[in-house]
Design brief:
It is a single chain. This protein is of the alpha+beta class. Helix content is 29%, strand content 11%. It has 2 helices and 2 strands. It has a two-stranded antiparallel ribbon with strand order 1-2. A hairpin with a 2-residue loop joins strand 1 and strand 2.
């Protein structure tokens, strides 16, 4: 909550790829590029409930957790 997050959230393991017009997290292939912010948000939210672009507080929470993990 210090960084502005109060709900659990997940982050895709890989960059999203364009698989038949659907944003898909997979290791192989080139990341989906040349999207403006509106198109990127639409691609994410069209995946269903609880899907969205990562917010700045979520990004900062993930970075802080990585920083504070000794194994990293």
């Amino acid at each position: 909550t210090v960084l502005g997050t109060s709900n659990d959230f997940c982050i895709a393991k890989y960059e999203m790829k364009n698989v038949g017009g659907v944003a898909t997290s997979q290791a192989a292939n080139t990341p989906w590029v040349n999207l403006n912010a509106t198109a990127a948000k639409t691609a994410c939210t069209s995946l269903g409930a609880n899907y969205d672009l990562i917010s700045n507080p979520e990004w900062m929470t993930a970075a802080s957790n990585i920083e504070n993990t000794a194994a990293n």
